[in-house]
Write a structure and sequence with these properties.
Elements (H helix, E strand, L loop, with lengths): L1 H22 L15 H4 L3 H4 L20 H14 L4 H10 L1 H6 L9 H22 L13 H11 L8 H11 L11 H6 L5 H6 L4 H10 L3 H9 L18 H6 L3 E4 L9 E3 L2 E4 L2 E3 L1 H17 L4 H12 L3 H9 L3 E3 L6 H10 L12 H11 L2 H13 L3 H27 L1
Parallel strand pairs: 1-3, 4-5
Antiparallel strand pairs: 2-3
Length: about 425
């Protein structure tokens, strides 16, 4: 009996403890938009998920390997304050007023106490804004407006990582609070500071997109990565039909069937089209940051979004570009620019990302495209015509030889007919 009473008391204590944990559990707000990347995606490439140079926001705050940038953040805050007539107290009060809303944007309880949290957000937000100002070489006369390309390429990838995001409303709010800024043209906005940076993978993706569309997306974006996602996706889905077959021919198979490849003319990055035997694919820059960018877009899409454009683009490219030969064909046609040749380039990137992508047959964005490609490859005449051209008309001299042979054959036939008539 005593044992049962003792067990009952222990269970009551356990229940109280568990109830206490449930009461303090961080509720997911509708404003939640910043997450830790799942382990199944992280295991593909840890360094593509975690910051390598600078911590922004609470998830990696205080990490020993990133502390070297903390002094640089203070220097950037000093330079940022030098540009404006506002005091540091103005900015601290602004962040403090938004503290509850800021914490709700993260998908887990942030255990950092209030003062440290407010200081961290101000330092990190000022760092991002000042970084953009320096990249645009805007000086207030009191500090350097120059940032080296090596520092840019060290820091820029970290700014786009999902776990390193700051809510967009905080970046916009501090920027607007700081205005007017010394040396800052009136027409230059936070959006334009980011838009002006076109020398990387992000710039390549946004190159053909209209300015008005980018700016509209910027007003809707929850953070920088979300803005990029909105910019890349088409305005609406293609008409959706069922797969006739889930198989997708690779680039080499398409070439053997006579398909031509061309840099996409669409202003939407994920828009891949096939018409009159020509497959148009957006220009794709394969650099060290390409994998980082697509991995973080994929992770964010799986955690927060109803659309699957990044996932479906990765799935399709993984099927099209299966071997180095496939990639070489796209390189020759100007579709891919590969700057990481020694590491397997785009083939390796899409094969790795494809491991954690999946195909939903009832909502795959490129269903119609895949059906069209399979139908084209399945037509014997297309393959015969392509084989004839590749084998007999691939050079001017080969073409001349074939034409000469045909003429000779025709003349021989005519001569034979004439001989029969003469008899």
């Amino acid at each position: 009996m005593e044992k049962r009473e003792h067990a009952s008391i222990d269970i009551e204590k356990l229940a109280d403890t568990l109830n206490g944990k449930l009461r303090t559990l961080h509720p997911l707000s509708r404003k939640c938009c910043i997450y830790r990347i799942s382990q199944r995606i992280r295991q593909l490439n840890e360094s593509a998920c975690s910051p390598r140079a600078v911590s922004i926001g609470p998830f990696h705050h205080g990490i020993e390997e990133l502390k070297a940038m903390e002094e640089q953040k203070l220097a950037f805050l000093r330079d940022f304050l030098h540009r404006t007539e506002k005091s540091i107290m103005d900015f601290l009060l602004y962040v403090k007023d938004k503290e509850v809303e800021l914490r709700e944007c993260y998908a887990e309880t942030i255990s950092i106490e209030s003062n440290e949290f407010v200081e961290m957000i101000l330092l990190d937000a000022a760092f991002v804004i000042e970084f953009l100002l320096k990249c645009n070489r805007i000086s207030s006369g009191g500090q350097s407006a120059y940032i080296s390309s090596s520092i840019f390429f060290d820091l820029w990838p970290d700014i786009w990582k999902l776990e390193n995001q700051l809510p967009m409303f905080m970046l916009k709010g501090l920027f607007e609070l700081a205005m007017p800024m010394k040396g800052m043209p009136d027409e230059l906005s936070l959006f334009k500071l980011i838009r002006n940076l076109k020398m990387d993978m992000v710039g390549c993706c946004l190159l053909k997109i209209e300015e008005n569309f980018l700016e509209d997306c910027f007003s809707e974006g929850k953070h920088l990565l979300d803005w990029l996602r909105l910019c890349l996706q088409p305005p609406e889905l293609h008409s959706q039909n069922e797969f006739k077959t889930a198989t997708t021919p690779a680039i080499t198979e398409l070439e053997q069937a006579g398909v031509k490849f061309k840099v996409g003319s669409s202003k939407y990055f994920f828009d891949i089209t096939f018409k009159n035997g020509i497959l148009e694919i957006p220009e794709l820059l394969i650099v060290a940051d390409t994998e980082i960018l697509f991995m973080n877009l994929l992770a964010y899409e799986q955690l927060n979004c109803s659309t699957r454009y990044s996932n479906d683009f990765i799935v399709l490219m993984n099927r099209l570009v299966r071997t180095r030969k496939d990639e070489e064909i796209l390189i020759q046609n100007g579709v891919i620019e590969d700057y990481i040749w020694g590491k397997g380039g785009g083939t390796a990137v899409f094969q790795k990302l494809g491991q954690e992508s999946d195909t939903k047959t009832d909502s795959f964005y490129y269903t119609d495209l895949v059906n069209q490609l399979n139908a084209y490859c399945g037509t014997p005449w297309n393959k015969w015509r392509a084989a004839l051209k590749q084998n007999h008309f691939n050079t001017p001299w080969a073409s001349i030889s074939v034409i000469a042979a045909v003429i000779l054959l025709v003349l021989t036939f005519i001569q034979a007919v004439c001989s029969v008539i003469a008899l």
